[in-house]
């Protein structure tokens, strides 16, 4: 059996309370006493029982984070930023991925509830937030991530996806495209639906422009390849002249279908292509991909800031719902030769031309 705090106290000739202060508030203890206690801890091999300490406190120092797909660099970047900001507050982030599966999402919520986490950051799949309401009623702060919680009792941090969808399709229309396809799914995802609404709004403002909606089973590279292959099977006259994808993974899959195999398509000469998120791989694709950039670092760090605020004075806390604006980053998949003339403005350290923020 390992050494206890009482053993450490006896070895250092101090009280158990002093050992506790050394572990939790060393500034309250004389330096010589701190040194004596630390020497006793090292000699006895004492490891404090954080589980017991957290049980007494009522909450752990862990933050639960549930995202839709940890394989999507967009969510990985958010998690990295959240983890960095959490570390500034002596918090640890525990990451779970729902894989767009409601039952997995619910299982993670229940698990984090049982572990008495400091708070929960979650990108919910659908509109049923009943489990999150129950968690909040039990005293655990809940922050919605990549979802606007305005009108709910939850704090949230989000990006205006309607504006993002409008940006993407307005850009396609500005470069002369009129037959536009929106590739995205499943439609139950709020982000997919909002980006479609923005795209529809942009099309409605341009005479002669149309929007064809192509649903996919998942927002993945594989689903994008399948959608791109289906477009290639059409007669050329029946194909769109531009494709807007609900995220960059779909767009990269479409680009793979368009640029490999016998029936390839010239991008953007025949079909312009734009994605969403501006993940790390977009500017190094075989045709550098235009995209709608989201401020992932701000999303992740702001989510932790909201959580800290919610825990500081729970009874007086008023939910906050910041919504960031996306920006267009135009590259070769929509600008073609125009982008090539801009490439000398790229980042010489990376050797990869940067897109133009519009």
From TrEMBL:
PROSITE patterns: HTH_LACI_1, HTH_LACI_2. It comes from the Bacteria. SUPFAM superfamilies: lambda repressor-like DNA-binding domains, Periplasmic binding protein-like I. InterPro entries: HTH_LacI (IPR000843), LacI/GalR-like_sensor (IPR046335), Lambda_DNA-bd_dom_sf (IPR010982), Peripla_BP_I (IPR028082). Coiled coil: none annotated. One of its GO terms (molecular function) is transcription cis-regulatory region binding. This is Substrate-binding domain-containing protein. It comes from Gordonia amarae.
